[in-house]
Amino acid sequence: MLAYIAGVDELPAVVSRARRGDRAAFAELYRRFHRAVHGVVLARVTYGDAADVVQDVFAIALERLPQLGEPAAFPGWLLAIARNRAIDHVRAKRPTDELAEVPVEAPRSAEVAQVLVALRGLPEAYQETMILRLVEGMSGPEIAEQTGLSPGSVRVNLHRGMKLLRAALGITEVVDDQTAG
Amino acid sequence: MTRPPGDQHDYLWDKSGPADPDVERLEKLLAPLAHDAPLDELRLYRRRRRWPWLVIGGGLVAAAAALLVWWRQPEPPQVVARCTNGFAFTARGGTVANAGAAMATGVLCVGGVLDTGAHEADLKIANIGAAELGAGTRVRLDQTTAERHQLYLERGRMHARVDAPPRLFAVATPSAHVTDLGCEYTLDIAASGAGTIAVQSGKVELATSSGAIVVAPKGTHAHLLAGRRPSLPVVDGASAVLVAAVEEYEHGAHDGIDRVLSSAEERDAVTVANLAQLVPASERRRVLDRLAQLVPVPQELTVDDVVGEPAFWEMWFDEVILQHLARNP
């Protein structure tokens, strides 16, 4: 938890160094945010195309970084670029078969594709949060830090999103003894 | 939720405590899809290297075209606004007036005014977005810097789509100040200075110099009242009863607040939440009580907690906006 807080404090300094052309600082921004960008992109783009769009997003970000006024606004700014780039990609490209692209062997690939479709079918407010949690493996506090949402909102999104995902996948929620008591 | 409110462990939230079996199974299933590719330095290099050639090439083409136009132009050249800092525009259907000169394309300089007259125009908002200007639109560029880009829409229609951090782009109008919080919206301003805003994605903040602030998310619209603050935002397709109640409230009816509260349905929570921000302190509690019936206070908090702590109100307001967006995907 301490490292997570320290990471937040350092971000404006890293962004400022990257704006001055420090490539190591930009690589550090990539290291911190590539999963968040991938999650945001994957909410809209097929798995096979998502990695390519992620690289595009960072290339655009590098170009536009001098335009970013407030370094602390970097996370929200970067994810806004990711959303718009993903939307543009979807508009420009015919949909591809996700089943053939997921890096999981059959028969599990069909299940992965089914879950991805269900995740993308969630209301917009929950899609990204759920993908960041379940696909990218980020915790709720990490998601809040990297998306700019309040921790309370992320927590609400996770629980509501999971409830809707269970319903979409036909999973019956098991209430444990603790809850029942 | 699978755990009781008092339980400190919440695996879905922070991976603490016993794992939820469904969550754990989905994590394992989807983990191979997590992103682990390194940064493609070559792509960054290629993209950046393209720029000088594009700029040089584009400059040469533009210079050649300008020379050709000048050589073939029998009349004296038009007065063309020259600036190093501005928004590029392209007219549609004819020419538009930029600093008084008729042009098909050009740059709207800081301090300059673009008047579309009988035609329309596409305006590039720095490198963060674009705006479509309708016929009869008059717009001035007040500022364009790394920190802020601001237009003044005197009259007409502007449809803007912006890809930028919140608050980087703003549009002042005779009646309200529209600050972009990452979104797409359409502004219509009449000659009287009054107008409307309809938000198509994300959300905008509407403010006046007096400090009154209204937040309008996707799928809502609000009136910009000349010489006054913006109206309460109303969801598209709201009931006629609520629309009438909001109008009564905006016109200062003595029972305006009561009428808005009694006619608001669950989908109108955004209207009630904004009302809570505008009413006097003495009226706020009953507005919050009604809001709690539409969108419960999150995190097991109570209205009393919210009244005593502004941070809780922010969290609740966020929750109202989130629920609204979830209902309007």
Distance between the termini of chain A: 31 Å
* C-alpha geometry of chain A: globular
Tell me the radius of gyration of chain B.
Answer: 25 Å
- Kindly identify the CATH topology of the largest domain in chain B: Jelly Rolls
Low-confidence stretches of chain B: 1-7, 49-54, 73-81
CATH architecture of the largest domain in chain B: Sandwich
| Total number of beta strands of chain B | 17
The assembly state of the depicted protein chains is: heterodimer
- Proportion of beta-strand residues of chain B: 25-35%
Name the poorly predicted regions of chain A.
1-9, 177-181
The largest inter-chain interface, given as chain pair and residues per side, is: A-B, 77 and 56 residues
- Portion of residues in beta strands of chain A equals under 5%
Could you explain the architecture of this structure?
The complex is a heterodimer of chains A (about 180) and B (about 325). Chain A is mainly α and about 180 residues long. Chain A is about 70% helix and about 0% strand. Chain A has 9 helices and no strands. Chain A has helices spanning about 1-20, 25-40, 45-65, 75-90, 110-120, 125-135, 140-145, 150-170, 175-180. In chain A, α2 packs across α3, α6 (about 125-135) packs across α8 and α7 packs across α8 (about 150-170). Mean pLDDT of chain A is about 80; it is low at about 1-10 and about 175-180. By secondary structure, chain B is α+β, with helices and mostly antiparallel strands. Chain B folds into 2 domains: about 80-230, Jelly Rolls; about 235-329. Helices cover about 35% and strands about 30% of the residues of chain B. Chain B has a 17-stranded mixed beta sheet that branches. The two termini of chain B are about 25 Å apart. Residues about 1-5, about 50-55 and about 75-80 of chain B have low confidence and may be disordered. Classes of the chains: A mainly alpha (about 180), B alpha+beta (about 325). The interface between A and B is large, with 77 and 56 residues.
